[in-house]
From TrEMBL:
SUPFAM superfamilies: Cytochrome P450. One of its GO terms (molecular function) is oxidoreductase activity, acting on paired donors, with incorporation or reduction of molecular oxygen. Belongs to the cytochrome P450 family. Keywords: Heme, Iron, Metal-binding, Monooxygenase, Oxidoreductase, Signal. The lineage of its organism: Eukaryota, Fungi, Dikarya, Basidiomycota, Agaricomycotina. This is Cytochrome P450. PANTHER family: CYTOCHROME P450, N-ACETYLTRYPTOPHAN 6-HYDROXYLASE IVOC-RELATED. Heme binds at C460. It comes from Gymnopus androsaceus JB14. It comes from the Eukaryota.
Length: 519
């Protein structure tokens, strides 16, 4: 270690940036916090920024804490690649894991088309059905039943069921598990617990250690769940492609392609399941070059791998993220009775007891919107994406990983005063009320600094579905039910600092008894 530190200290182009010596030139410092302190690197980043200022280097990774750096790194049209150390494992041919934004663009557009706001709105009934199912399941967890509902498990179950209802052929029916404890939900949870181990497994290309790549991959905490998912998804693909007439799918897609998204006809294209849709779209350019007689439904191995990887990735990308935001919001609401009362009053006024309400109407409710934004701000989304360039005036050599965790934006006291306090009211103020003028040059538009879904060319493609689910979930949950937590929630506790960034994975799940408010 000493030789490595000495050698690197004097000749490396990044040596001008500050940082603790051991962290600057070896992996051991960072690995200690992640592996021995249970993913504690994010917390240590905060400590190091207080010592070294707005940027410091840790093993070729330059980390910033200035919210303005976020806008420069995740800018529209940014050409930064994703960090291979973080994305080389798992579903490697998925959009999420594709490092070069240009390589990812075509497949990203296909996903964005599938999850467009228009398509999500047209599938409202399918999403609503799953949320209604959750509410009706929750109703049986009355105090008299003696068993409380575990919301840490209930939310991922509901979110996975929505995804499968929208995209896949074989429903998971997670919500039908008596205690919301379907083995698959538990498996995803336990594999995600040690996610940071992945950062320290050498990639297949790494010298020497790469020879042990099979062994290293077996240590990947996600290996177990990825193998199980791959098998399940392969079966799904085979069954759905046997069932669906691809010529019909092709005609329906060609029909959509003829119209701009806004002017698309009221066709039943929203019914096209994900795999045939994705397969047809990735084959479209090749087919256009080929003559019509060469049209083929053949599923080659490369495309099969892509479909499987996309199926795996979407289940990961679209499950814990939404479930975590729901859990964070509900925990805070149950701790802050005044905030909860204001939300319930707004919902009661907008939603008659015997009536229905659409998601688009829910989206117009200002306090519900503020609660959702605050839940997203304090659940942070994906916290450690990364990306050579000039950032904040610093010339950074090619090959350096640069990044800023979303937590440094969401918890910046100049953008969000008292940042660890759950305060939906901050979103109701006009943009000029947040003091950006002083340090950020112009008035703050707080929305600009809500970066839960990331920004730029690699931002989240599931944002419309996620927003839709959050509105429906918060709306239905607090209009239809009264929740009493089994353990009183402390209004002064901060989920972020007490439970790290993802309370989904703590040992004390949020359990509640329910009482029906309206039918
Ligand atoms: C509250 C819910 C969600 C949050 C907070 C969230 C957050 C994020 C973030 C921060 C990224 C960027 C990650 C990176 O740079 O590596 C991302 C990417 C992505 N998300 Fe989401 N996400 C959510 C829901 C969803 C859903 C429901 C889906 C799918 C149905 C989805 C699909 C994706 C995909 C495919 C990417 C990769 C995009 C790319 O690499 O170009 N997400 N998401």
């Amino acid at each position: 270690i000493a030789l490595q530190v000495l050698g690197q200290t004097f000749r490396h182009p990044l040596s001008r940036f500050p940082g603790p010596l051991l962290a600057k030139w070896t992996v051991f410092y960072r690995a200690y916090y992640d592996l021995c302190k249970n993913g504690g690197w994010l917390r240590q980043l905060e400590v190091l920024h207080t010592v070294y200022g707005r940027s410091f280097i840790a093993l070729e990774q330059l980390h910033f804490n200035d919210a303005r750096a976020y806008g420069e790194i995740y800018a529209p049209g940014s050409r930064f690649h994703k960090d291979p150390a973080l994305y080389a494992f798992g579903a490697t041919s998925s959009v999420f894991a594709t490092q070069d934004p240009q390589d990812a663009a075509v497949m990203r557009n296909i996903l964005a088309m599938f999850f467009s706001r228009r398509r999500v709105i047209r599938r409202e009934a399918a999403i609503r059905d799953k949320i209604v199912e959750l509410i009706s399941r929750l109703k049986s967890f009355k105090r008299e039943s003696g068993i409380a509902a575990n919301l840490d498990n209930a939310f991922p179950s509901m979110v996975l069921d929505v995804l499968t209802a929208l995209m896949f052929s074989q429903p998971f029916n997670m919500l039908s598990s008596p205690a919301f404890d379907h083995p698959f939900v538990r498996r995803m949870e336990s594999s995600s617990l040690n996610l940071w181990i992945m950062k320290y497994l050498p990639s297949r290309n790494a010298p020497i250690l790469g020879a042990f790549s099979r062994f290293m991959r077996s240590m990947n905490p996600l290996a177990d769940v990825i193998i199980a998912l791959s098998k399940l998804i392969k079966d799904e693909i085979t069954s759905i492609l046997n069932r669906v007439d691809l010529n019909d799918v092709r005609d329906r897609i060609e029909n959509i392609n003829e119209f701009s998204a806004a002017a698309a006809p009221e066709s039943d294209e929203t019914d096209i399941p994900f795999y045939p849709f994705f397969l047809e779209k990735i084959q479209e350019p090749t087919r256009k070059q080929a003559s019509s007689t060469e049209k083929t439904n053949r599923l080659n191995l490369l495309n099969l791998r892509r479909l499987i990887d996309e199926g795996i990735n979407i289940r990961f990308a679209g499950t814990d993220t939404i479930a975590n935001a729901c859990l964070v919001g509900v925990k805070y609401l149950l701790a802050h009775k005044d905030i909860l009362a204001r939300l319930v009053a707004e919902l009661d006024e907008a939603w008659p007891a015997d009536g229905e309400i659409s998601c688009e109407e829910l989206e117009k409710l200002p306090y519900l919107t503020a609660v959702i934004k605050e839940s997203l701000r304090l659940s942070h989304g994906v916290v450690s994406p990364m990306g050579d360039a000039v950032i904040m005036g610093e010339v950074i050599p090619a090959g350096t990983t640069i990044g800023i965790s979303a937590t440094f934006v969401h918890l910046n006291p100049e953008l969000f005063p008292e940042p660890t306090t759950f305060s939906p009211e901050r979103w109701l103020k006009s943009s000029s009320s947040v003091d950006e003028k002083k340090d950020f040059g112009s008035e703050v538009n707080s929305d600009k600094y809500l970066v839960s879904f990331s920004r730029g060319p690699r931002s989240c493609v599931g944002i419309h579905l996620a927003r839709f689910e959050l509105y429906m979930l918060f709306g239905f949950l607090f209009r239809k039910l009264e929740l009493t937590p089994t353990v009183e929630q402390d209004p002064n506790s901060s989920l972020y600092f007490d439970d790290f960034f993802t309370p989904l994975y703590t040992d004390d799940p949020l359990c509640v008894f329910t009482k029906e408010r309206v039918g």
